Amino acid sequence: MDMLPSYGDRWQSTLYWQPSDRQQQSFQLLYDAVLAANQQVNLTRITTPEDFWEKHLWDSLQGVALWLSEGASADALKVVDVGTGGGFPGLPVALVFPHWAIALLDATRKKLVALETVCETLGIANVSFLPQRAEQVAHQPIHRESYDLALLRAVGPVNTCAEYALPLLNLGGQAILYRGQWSAEEEAGLTAILPRLGGKLSEVRSQTTPITQGVRHNVVLTKVERTPDKFPRLPGIPSKTPLA
Ligand SMILES: C[S@@+](CC[C@H](N)C(=O)[O-])C[C@H]1O[C@@H](n2cnc3c(N)ncnc32)[C@H](O)[C@@H]1O
């Protein structure tokens, strides 16, 4: 079994937060369980201890660093991780915020079946599973406009992500879009379509990963008006023809 580095100083200096011993242990268990599941289903190509620490654990948690820096939020947030894949960013966030209810949503059912096993192994109880497309889930009354926070990492063009996320958020809810590079053109294109979805751009935060100095941007959207019923469009359309 490979041991994850703890990198206490790097958590502290880049996220202003130091995981407890218990959280460190749960990260190790998560690493072991995801790698075990990865033998059956392709969940992630990021498998070395250092890469897993930086590109999955640190990166997943830096997106919610605002909340981390203020101390774990006492609010019981309802969160959806759209296109969770191997469970990122949702699973590290579920471990650190056990009082948040996190729905892991992904169109690939077998990935979610594997993640259910991971969660059973770790005893993660604050997670639910939505093996469907975001375009379908967002039209179901039980899910539409019902989440406080949406997380989306590596799920396609930014305007596609906005069309998936905003219909799922309640008024005042926020989406954190985990991006790598970020350009003025992308920002202008996003800002132009957000009013149609009832959203606004609240913030773009820039980060550098602490080991390999990779570029990260978190694009934070806020739901300011109800999203018209026609969004998201039919399955496949938001990715094939992003709003422009
Ligand atoms: C590149 S993976 C990213 C996984 C994870 N978020 C990460 O950053 O490691 C993209 C995932 O999004 C899922 N996905 C893409 N479009 C989707 C949609 N419209 N609805 C639900 N899941 C979707 C895919 O099945 C895939 O597992």
TrEMBL record:
S-adenosyl-L-methionine binds at residues 83, 88, 106-108, 134-135, 153. It is found in: Cytoplasm. It comes from the Bacteria. Coiled coil: none annotated. One of its GO terms (biological process) is methylation. Its main location: cytoplasm. Its EC number is 2.1.1.-. Belongs to the methyltransferase superfamily. RNA methyltransferase RsmG family. This is Ribosomal RNA small subunit methyltransferase G. It comes from Leptolyngbya subtilissima DQ-A4.
